[in-house]
């Protein structure tokens, strides 16, 4: 047969294949592309320094960069097997009389070849490379263990560590000559080319590569990132003819790609003219000067790896974090920012503020897009501006079962220079889920800001600590913010940044006496706290309790009476179900005469919670802030909602009615009460008032035996399970009728969260509470152990400790426990929004708990059925749902 008429994919080893025109990109060229992208990544100072720091170095020398670039280039070397190459052959392409080789992948299949008794003499593969023994001797001072571990790391670039032993069985036929394909000959050529691509790798006298396991983990993330960039045909066009000098083309394309992705900041930094004055960065209603907490946040040394800001809600912590980031960017300490919020809705709220900040900080010609890193929301032009397109899985010959559960967009989120998103997107960089290493590597160059940190459950706390360990261990920087952080939690977070001997957590008395507001940093043997002066946000809240938690009519009457007197009233319930029942009671009580006192959107009376479609939630947020912001209109109004009302919304109520909740959460809710100073509040509401709805009884002991949902209060309430903290909060309300905010914040939080305070309640209330405490603490211990199993072991080597770094099949459980377990249901045709006929809903996030037992990982489009009164119904298998002005409900 004439070779020029023989398809190129049958004559040469390919890495990328176009199923349309059956064109190919040669394997040797793709390896050069990715090696060049890795080299270009390390040309960016911050990225290179993060990798160096993870290995205990101040920087990487040229020889180390070259050596790592060679190893990164070899990421897809397993594609030399004939089972992978012939998977795209047609029957007519098979040699006469020869059977088709067994179809194979390209990384698990290589593991048996590499996992011999002695890697330094592992047969033909390393012999064919031609320089492996030299690399073992000169790159590695641990007898080959470091180089071997880094090689396993680069082979793990498809999202999960490669299993060396006990996995795929060896298949020698994959590596034998087949037709015109000779794997050994290809490896020999690649070995020669790679040596010429990065000759500095073989410089004499260069120091060995770092042996720290953490270095291997960051290296894997960068390999994953380089492969992602280098697999884009728009930047790296297919070339199917061997070119010995192709590396020059690859390097030029890599520089273009790195710039397009937004990683090359030379031009941006050259155009930067310094941080503008505070008043120019933030137009805070004519006040050009920072307050005390904002000034303290910037005065803390910029090189501090971890800073914790504790200040009352509404004191300007967001601006403090952004201003500190501006200073760190100017100093060259960070390249960008990831602003992490606890919920999707909170992230959406902050996104606009960060966009305005970026517009004030950066010249327009070099202004980075501010990405909304929230799956399920339309990111608009900001995400479109990120030049990291979807990875072409099919073109790379990868089995579609390897596509991770997270869509490709979330993996791109953390590559943005500036992004605002949910904290779970950052946490996924610490967990044993696909592409976690890439997420962490992308995040490492940026300042990580985590807002609304509090004494969360043991699982989330352990995950956040693992994230901080990884981020700070790579030389990264983090900033945590909270209005209500307990001393135990603060001590734990600061421990992640300490290198000295761990200190003893403060006693209850010591914790209460700690300053507030405050800025905390690490200090020798403990923590350094700087007391901050008053921020001008002080207020005295009259707080009472009423045993009306389950009397929806009475709770509605309280709210409606206040609204009739002109008050803006927030009613915050612990569950969506109870919020809806409260809304229905309000509507019944208001009737037609007082209908205008209820929250509505385009004439449809509604409430505020997390089970609305993204488009409707934006409208609800906008309408809520319009009614309750600083410039709110006159007249009474009642808004019912859930925890969504306490997070990131700039709303100002005259009266707060709320379910009993832990004191740190209660203070968050109180932050929406008299948020702004004003002189037009209705008579009787000139001072802030909070009514806390509680169960009946002298204490919460009856809830210990509660067998039904107690609206989040009790072992079966599914919201706040630790009754000790709730009982402590109930007592604080009963004992102190006035709460001075922020002067009392520290005292209140510690008396309801500190272990000593909780133990005092157990001792007083007896054996049943001791059983409950043991159950809670046992659950926390179990959650901590579950989290420990879920986090990546960055202290373990990919080679010596291979079994310890593998990802068990627990990703679905991690997703669910992290709260990122919603399934997008797509509607065809799109459904009409209950809040406006002109708006449509093309998708809706449904909790996977409601779809348990249904194959819904990638559900087919469903047909919504309109309802006469507005809204629609839909079905998934045997599950039926309704969506209307009250949100999503299961029928």
How would you characterize the overall build of this protein?
This protein starts with 13 loop residues before the first strand and ends with a strand. It is of the alpha/beta class and 891 residues long. α1 (27-42) packs across α10 (213-230), α10 (213-230) crosses α20 (436-444) and α24 (552-564) packs across α25. Residues 117-121, 383-395 and 397-408 have low confidence and may be disordered. The strands form six sheets. The protein has an eight-stranded mixed sheet with strand order 5-6-4-7-8-3-9-10, with helices on both faces. Strands 15-12-16-17-11-18 form a six-stranded mixed sheet, with helices on both faces. The chain has a four-stranded antiparallel sheet with strand order 21-22-23-24, with no helix packed on it. The relative contact order is 0.09. β21 and β22 form a beta hairpin. Helices cover 39% and strands 14% of the residues. It has 33 helices and 24 strands.
| Gyration radius from CA atoms, angstroms | 30 Å
Strand order of the largest sheet: 5-6-4-7-8-3-9-10
What proportion of the residues form beta strands (DSSP E)?
Answer: 5-15%
**What general outline do the C-alpha atoms trace?**
globular
Unreliable residue stretches:
117-121, 383-395, 397-408
Q: How many strands in all?
A: 24
Distance between the termini: 67 Å
Mean pLDDT equals 86
Number of helices: 33
Task: Determine the structural class based on helices, strands and strand pairing.
Answer: alpha/beta
* Main β sheet profile: 8 strands, mixed
Helix content: 25-40%
